[in-house]
Amino acid sequence: MKIAIITGASSGLGVEFTKAIIAKYQKLDEIWIVARRKERLEKIAQSYPNIKIRVIPIDLSDDTSYDVLNRILIEAKPEIKILINNAGLDINGRFDAMEVGDIINMVNINIKGMTVVNRLCFPYMKKGSFAIITGSVSSFVPVPSQAVYSSSKVYVKFLTRALREEVKEKGINVCLLCPGNIDTEMNIRSEAKMQKTKVSRLPYLDMKKLTVKALQKAESGKSVYTPGTFYKIYRLLGKVFPTSFMMKLTKNFFSAN
């Protein structure tokens, strides 16, 4: 049984990836969508009555969810052709004012959840399979007011690049997706503009085009995909200029408020 797995599938990029995979990869036997909100996942599945979609309602911030996913994989023994490891959480604010619970949730989802999903799924991937792991432009330079989030995405970046080297000899590609501003629940465009946040001044990416392009890039063997000219230039600047200089830019333009 050949399948695709999408985590963080109940909103934002996860929904768009699900749509794009359904449209492009019609020979898959099943598509598994993973997120904590069961009702939303079921609504997505009901929208495609002719597609076999398996709803897996688990919270990747909870350790018990890994046992659930592992048991499902052991029982089904699928061949994972596409893995979209997309679940993530972004809560902005000064570190000394953040709720401890919010910090723990970000670390649990962005680092632990992302890591364990890779570990559970990779043994079921074979030659020709590929994975897209969602990072962020926030990993290019430390971002004040996003200290925990940007740090967690640095971990994602390093792990993804290392994993790619480990599995490419098996004919499996792992692609790091580093998007910038997207109109999602974590960053609603209309609210950001209304509140006149700094982030609202940055270019917003088209999620539909982004996901289609990311699938093309990953399938063709690309290691990193940063959508949008503005963010590509930002990535380059982060490599060329000293971190102290770039942090002044991120403080003025990338931090939330």
TrEMBL record:
Enzyme class, first EC level, given as a word: oxidoreductase
GO MF entry, a single one: oxidoreductase activity
EC number: 1.-.-.-
Gene3D superfamilies, per the entry: NAD(P)-binding Rossmann-like Domain
Lineage: superkingdom: Bacteria
InterPro entries xref list: NAD(P)-bd_dom_sf, Sc_DH/Rdtase_CS, SDR_fam
Keywords assigned: Oxidoreductase
Family the entry assigns: Belongs to the short-chain dehydrogenases/reductases (SDR) family.
PANTHER family: DEHYDROGENASE/REDUCTASE SDR FAMILY MEMBER 7B, DEHYDROGENASE_REDUCTASE SDR FAMILY MEMBER 7B
Name the record gives this protein: SDR family NAD(P)-dependent oxidoreductase
Organism of origin: Candidatus Clostridium helianthi
